[in-house]
Amino acid sequence: MKAAQDIVIAPIITEKSMSVIADKKYTFKVATDANKVEIAEAIEKLFGVEVAKVNTMNVRGQKRRMGRYEGSTAAWKKAVVTLTEKSKTIDFFDGLM
User: Fold this and answer.
1) Any residues with CB less than 8 A from the CB of 2 and at least 6 apart, and which?
2) Which of 52, 55, 64, 88 is least buried, going by the fewest C-beta atoms within 10 A?
């Protein structure tokens, strides 16, 4: 089993992800081979909260050009974690509001 730090890579801080924090939904970039159960356990361990459900989606890499050279960005996995009603909030995101 992977460590929690290897599963949760980074928080995603966008306008859309910040607007749903009031509903206790938090967005993270996660490892591509992690499943929903592993993501929920990692969030609970790292932040000390109770997870109600996890929604995941695979984000495709986009094509990019730099002059005559063409490539693509890396594909990655995104997880939207919903906390339970009685759970406390994640302190990291509270400082951003």
Assistant:
1) 31, 34, 38
2) 64
DSSP β-bridge partners for residue 59:
76
Domain count, the chain: 1
Instruction: Judge whether 92 lies within some domain.
Output: no
Cβ 30 vs Cβ 57: under 8 Å? no
Residue-wise pLDDT tens for the chain (97 aa)?
789 999 999 999 999 999 999 899 999 999 999 999 999 999 999 999 999 999 999 999 999 999 999 999 999 999 999 999 999 888 888 777 6
The CATH number of residue 44's host domain is: 3.30.70.330
The candidate with the shortest Cα–Cα distance to 95, out of 20, 8, 21, 7, is 21
* 5, 27, 40, 49 from 33: Cα distances, Å: 14, 17, 14, 23
Is residue 91 in some structural domain? no
